Amino acid sequence: MTMPYYASAEQVMRDRSEYARKGISRGRSVAVVTYADGVLFIAENPSSTLHKVGEIYDRIGFAAVGRYSEFESLRVAGVRLADVRGYSYNRRDVTGRVIANAYAQTLGAIFTEQMKPYEVELCVAEVGETPERDQLYRLTFDGSVVDEPDFVVMGGQADAVTAHLRENFHPGMGLADALRVGVDALSAVSPATTGAADGGPTRLTAQQMEVAVLDRRRPKRAFRRVVGAALHTLLGDGQTGETETPPSGHVPSHPAPGTPAGLGDPAAPDTAGGTTDTGEGHPQSDG
């Protein structure tokens, strides 16, 4: 008579944790850093369509590492939760903590009830009216949630990137300085720069990164992707980027003095899609 397969609950959880960590460790790192005017997302991501960074709601952003299909389904679920809650109650009731708690419950249930855990690590960021009210929540594959100050690093080389940021980051940095510190930290551990000693690149380029911000100066939708000329200007690499033709009906806002080209005037109304945001309903996500 054969004995039924048995494994203790402790061993099962340990195996699932090891499985999820191995999957996450294969992913390229993502850094979420606070700066003077909001929150900056920097991801090593050569793809122009499979985003690691996205928008959840007016002043809430999302970043992830791991298996794309899994964290993308979580991002979409977060957008739907925020949309329903904001429509049913009030837009002010949609907070980063609410979204983070929902993600924590979902990831915890998947980790304990399903055979295969999600191979993902998430960051939910909310930009406040002042730097002191910015919130960064880091969520792991087992549903654990931590409120992190200043910055969050995720991915296979998170410890090395975190050590680099601790040495070079200081609160209140400008956007260009925060981007430089974040890019240098990611470049130090990136496989794309491992050939620097043999004459290869020593720093990640704009084409190898995905960059976005939550700008507290904007009255409605704080999330903006930093691409093209704006990104090259912030990186100071001497390139101008490709000039994109805006879609029909969209009139870009004029950049304010001191604002990198492409980001526009923070005080200008959001006219994405050709219509002014009325404050009702949920804006379409950029990610």
Principal-axis shape equals globular
**SSE pattern:** HEEEEHHEEEEHHEEH
Number of strands: 10
Low-confidence stretches: 241-259, 271-287
Helix coverage percent of residues?
Answer: 25-40%
Structural class: alpha+beta
Describe the main β-sheet briefly: 5 strands, antiparallel
What separation lies between the terminal Cα atoms? 55 Å
**Biggest sheet, strands in spatial order?**
8-1-2-9-10
Overall average residue pLDDT: 83
Q: What portion of residues belong to β-strands?
A: 15-25%
Radius of gyration: 20 Å
Number of separate helices: 6
Explain the overall architecture.
The protein is α+β, with helices and mostly antiparallel strands. The protein has 6 helices and 10 strands; from the N terminus they run αββββααββββααββα. The protein has helices spanning 9-25, 68-88, 96-113, 158-168, 175-189, 228-235; strands at residues 30-35, 38-44, 53-57, 60-66, 120-126, 135-139, 145-148, 151-154, 209-215, 223-225. A 5-stranded antiparallel sheet has the order 8-1-2-9-10, with helices on one face. Strand 1 (30-35) and strand 2 (38-44) form a beta hairpin.
